[in-house]
Amino acid sequence: MLHLRAIVPREKSGAVRRLLEAEPGVTHLVVWPGVAVSPPGDVIACDIARESANLVLDDLRALGIDEDGSIALENLDVSLSRSAREAESDAPGEGADAVVWEQITEATSEESTFTVTFLAFLTIATMIAACGVLLDNPILIVGAMVVGPEFGPLAGLCVATVQRRRGLAARSAFALLAGFPIAMSLTMAFTWLLTWSGDFDKSMLEGDRPQTSFIYQPDWLSFWVAFLAGVAGILSLTSSKSGALIGVLISVTTVPAAANAAVAVAYGDLSQAGGSLGQLGLNLGAIVVAGTGTLLAQRYAWSRTHGKHHPGVPGLRRD
C-alpha cells in the first residue's frame, strides 16, 4: 500500500473527494477542511493500492492539484486493516507488477545526478576494482561491484527514454560521461602511486589472471549477461524489491572494466585498455537497451489493464 497526502484548493476539494471515493483501490480516506496554510486549502489523505496509484495520480494532475496544491506519496511498510486488504483485492492487477511512474522517476532523478558523493563512490569502486584485477582477486571485484553507484544513471536513462524526459536523460548521461572518465583518471594516478610504492607492478597486469581475464575480453556472452542484469535491475526498481544483489549483477562488467582500462592505460597496455573499454561500452549499452525494453513492456501491460475512464470523474482520461 501507498499513503497519499494532498493539499487541495477549497474549490477543487469536492472533485478530489469524489475521485478518490470512486476508485476501488483507495481506502482510509480522510479530509481536513481548511487546515493547510501554505498553500492554503484542504488536506486530503488516503491509502492506495499500488496498482491504483497511477490512475489516481493522473487524475489529480488532470485537476491541476500538482500546480495549485501539492501531492505527496510514500510507501506504507505495514497496514493492518480489513479495508486495506479489500482495496488491494478490488484494485485490478497485482501490486508487485504495478509500476508507479512518478515514484520511479523521482527515485532515478535523485540517483542519476552527478554529485560529489556519486563521484566519490564511483572512484572508490574503481580503485577497489583496480586492486582486484591486478591481484586477480574476485573478492575485491565483488566489493567494487557493491560500492559502484552507476545503476542510478543507467536506470535514469531508461526511465527518461520511456517517459520522454529530456532533463533526466541529460543528467543521467552527464553522470556517466563525466563520472567514468574522472574516476578512471584518478584510478590511473592511484595505480602510479602504488607502483611507486612497490605495491603494484606492470607484470601483475600482463601475467596470467584466470579469475578476471573476462573483464577485458568482450563477447556475446558478456552482452547477454548484462542484458539479463538490466532486465532484473529494472524489475527490482519498479517492484520496490531489494536491489542489493541486483546492484552486484549490474556492476559486474562496468566498474571492473573501467578499472582495468585505467590500469592498462597507466602501464601503456593499449590493447588491453581497448578490450576493457569495449567491455564497458558493450555492457552499458546492453543494460540501457534491456532496461528500456522492460519499462516499455511494463507500460504496455499497464495500459492494457488500466486504460479506462474513471467512473466517478467524467472527462478525466486514462492514457
UniProtKB/TrEMBL annotation:
Keywords from the UniProt entry: Membrane, Transmembrane, Transmembrane helix
Transmembrane segments: 114-135, 141-162, 174-194, 214-237, 244-268, 280-302
Classification via InterPro entries: DUF389 (IPR005240)
PANTHER family: AT15442P-RELATED
Protein name: DUF389 domain-containing protein
